[in-house]
Amino acid sequence: MYVVNKVLDYIFLYWEIGYTFLKQQEQCFLSVSFIADLELGNTGTRLENFIRLCRLLDLNADYVLFGAPGDAVQRIMDLLRDRDEETVRVVERTVEALLRALDEQQTT
Description:
- By secondary structure, this protein is mostly helical.
- The protein contains seven helices and no strands.
């Protein structure tokens, strides 16, 4: 129910900035009755429909499901946001190696 409520929050927000009910269901290929039931909390949604709604509303599914990342994760994301893919891979491998070394050091 949490996910449905989170999606509904975004649906209402988009309505406020000019999206219409029918436009949403047309773009998602979802029926008016499904959107109405979702809006009223009478139904849940399949993963396929959840993905359609997230794409339509330009939502990050991780954020909808899990909420905002913690401060440390957010700082790392900010550091990597404008980096190219190769730099991100290098940072990822470096962090993995560092964490493995720290784990090994703690077990000895």
